[in-house]
Fold:
Amino acid sequence: MILDKFSLKDKVAIVTGSNTGLGQGICKAYVEAGAKVVGVSRRPSDETAAQCGKDFHNVIADLSALDVIPAVIEETLEKFGRIDVLVNNAGIIKRQDSIEFSEEDWDSVLNVNLKTVFFLTQAVARQFIKQNSGGKVINIASMLSYQGGIRVPSYTASKSAIKGVTM
Structure:
């Protein structure tokens, strides 16, 4: 059957931004494909958990700071024993005319959408090496990285830059 080619049976995925939208949909699809999923979000992903059942575990973490990364890795390993996939989906956006955009808003967006993506990817890549198993990293960009936007300059910059984050 064609769906067997897309099976994620016995795989463990971390999905950031798991409580709504695209992240929630990714979690649900991964569980349906056989994966165990750790959803990372600032707030409880209760609706996602209800849709995914026992193969979903929520880690509450504010990805605006790097100090949460070790806990995300540790909790994933405690719950499911390994990591096979990382989906960097979480992101924030601040809307303000470029001419008025503050450094604080710029930094907050770049920290979540780019800096944490890189260092979470680095931590997961180290786990892939430790497991001697390889793995997959998926970074979610945005069409705004192609279109630009005068009211979302930091978001546009961060989503354009994420296309280049590889390990």
The chain has a mean pLDDT of 93. Strands lie at 12-16, 36-41, 56-60, 85-88, 136-139. The chain is about 45% helix and 15% strand.
